[in-house]
Amino acid sequence: GASAAEAFENSTVGYAYNDFILLPGHIYFSSDQVSLDTHVSRRVALKTPLVSSPMDTVTESAMAIHMALHGGLGIVHYNNTIREQKKEVDRVKRYENGFITDPKTLSPEHTIADARAIKSRYGFMGIPITENGKMYSRLLGIVTNRDIEFIRDPNTKLGDVMTRDLVTAREGIGLDEAYAIVKESKKGKLPIVNERFELVGLVARTDILKNRDFPNATKDRVGKKLLCGAAIGTRVEDRERLEALVEVGVDLIVLDSSQGDSVFQLEMLRHIKSKYSHVEVICGNVVTTTQAYHLLKAGADGLRIGMGCGSICTTQEVMACGRPQATAVYQVSKLAREYGVPTIADGGVSSIGHIIKGLACGASCVMMGSMLAGTEEAPGDYFYKDGVRLKKYRGMGSAEAMQKGSAVRYFSEDDRIFVAQGVSGAVVDKGSLRRYLPYLINGIKHGFQDLGVPSLMELHNRLYNGKLRFQIRTLAGQLEGAVHSLYTYERSAV
Ligand code: XMP
Questions:
Q1: Residue 197, by phi and psi: left (phi above 0), alpha (psi -120 to 50) or beta?
Q2: Which stretches in the chain have pLDDT values below 50?
Q3: Which one of the listed residues 228, 283, 313, 365 is annotated catalytic?
Q4: What is the pLDDT, as a whole number, of residue 185?
Q5: Are 22 and 470 a contacting pair, CB within 8 Å?
Q6: For the sheet containing 2-3, what is the strand order?
Q7: Among 17, 75, 283, 312, which is best to mutate for testing ligand 1, by the most ligand atoms less than 8 A from CB?
Q8: Catalytic residue list contains 462
Q9: Model-level pTM?
Q10: pLDDT of residue 119
Q11: Domain CBS: where (predicted)?
């Protein structure tokens, strides 16, 4: 095997993750001792080097909350109105483990059929009834299974059957205290109300058993709130968006562009740095050292690397621009390291092995779209096709997404004719992040163990001192390393 660094330095060939394989090292520690501690930007440290992509089929509040709970970070997309994006970020910042902050609610005018529809869609019962059927409205009652199970007429109004005798708790109550009330009251749900008796949250009995602690959660030191990132564009209008996000406490801004080396991005970076110096700014995307140099010199707190390697990208085909991802990550990360700036390897990750390779090429974190789009916490509903449970996933430069407004990312803001740089499709159900993220994290740790490196920091040290060895694979080598010679009659689980 060759030193990975030397191979990247000396080759005129650009390598993709699948072009090479890392050589194993000596194991002298158990996999649970592996430390994945890293930074996503100068001042934001993570326990898990995973970031979710700002795409409208990947990151809204639920995704960002669970990424942060597991030690990673979510970047809320901006293919929506300023109000909508602000609300998503606000939800993440207000999140408290154990409290349901967006319970399904109905009004007394809704019917039993409406309540049953919620049960069959989300699988739970215990629906708070508020004056106007929404949160932050006066709480009137609660409808449980027992209130409606023997009633035949589906048009019966919930106002006529709901339980009015309520046990509630006041906003600000701690989780332990709330759980104590739930246990004592023997009720399934505990509505949380403010001083005007408006519903502001809910605690569920079933969550008491489910809720574990999240010792690795990405939180700020003072308020103990989860950290949250958000993406914006570089137009003048985006300054208004930025202001709204800062108001609700966004911690990190990603300047989202497929080609980040532009005067527009430099201007926006300077604007943010001068006005909101506490907010971290990640610039990109870049794939060359020249692009990176401009942004590093201007004070970027992090760099996002990748052009055209995403699973839904057609940028390389349409724009004739981009770079194979492994080489891009190596080159940019090496320069960024000199500035003490972390990097994110963005796109082209379709397995745990790719995550490890992205990190081995020098990235501080890996950003994923397609790997996460099939989880419960991604926006959108599941649907079935040929008996397979799927969720929609689309490129932000796809015709479909651009029609909704994301055209700015792809520099066609003034064009009447969109040139798509991405496609839409679907990905397979991956279940909840509550299980999927621990699975990914464990997998990464096992990979590090095989490499004989106990930490991400050590992996990078070995890369740069020439001790990380890898082998370029021929096509036959790649085929040999993948599943082969097998009659497949079952779809693989993940
Ligand atoms: P994965 O491979 O994780 O990639 O699905 C996600 C990343 O792809 C980028 N992205 C796009 N690139 N056209 C592109 O060329 C698009 O329409 C598009 N949408 C997203 C983005 O960097 C994302 O994080």
A1: left
A2: 493-494
A3: 313
A4: 87
A5: yes
A6: 2-3, 469-472, 20-22
A7: 312
A8: no
A9: 0.85
A10: 82
A11: 99-158, 162-218
Give the active site residue among 304, 409, 462, 469. Answer: 409
147 Cα–ligand 1 center, Å? 47
Return the structure tokens found at 36: 């994945």
Distance between CA atoms of residues 54 and 95, nearest Å? 19
What contacts 24+ positions apart, CB below 8 Å, involve 173-176? Answer: 175/96, 175/97, 175/98, 175/99, 175/203
List Cα–Cα distances, 73 to 49, 59, 209, 219, 437, in angstroms. Answer: 8, 10, 25, 10, 12
Backbone angles phi, psi at 39, to 5 degrees: -125, 145
Q: Retrieve residue 445's tokens.
A: 């740790």
* Distance separating alpha carbons of residues 190 and 169, to the nearest angstrom: 7
Q: Specify whether 313 is catalytic.
A: yes
Q: How far is the CA of 383 from the centre of ligand 1 (A)?
A: 22
pLDDT of residue 494: 46
Distance 368 CA to ligand 1 centre (A): 9
The size of the chain, in residues, is 494
Tokens of 208: 């008491």
| Other beta carbons less than 10 A from residue 395's beta carbon | 28
The sign of the CA dihedral 433, 435, 439, 441 is positive
Q: Which of 282, 313, 321 to mutate to test the pocket of ligand 1 (most atoms within 8 A of CB)?
A: 313
Token pair 């745990």 is found at 352
**Predicted local confidence at residue 147, as pLDDT:** 87
Taking only the tens place, the pLDDT of each residue in 226-244 is 999 999 999 999 999 999 9
Q: Which residues line ligand 1 (CB under 6 A)?
A: 53, 55, 258, 306, 308, 310-313, 315, 346-349, 367-370, 395-398, 421-422
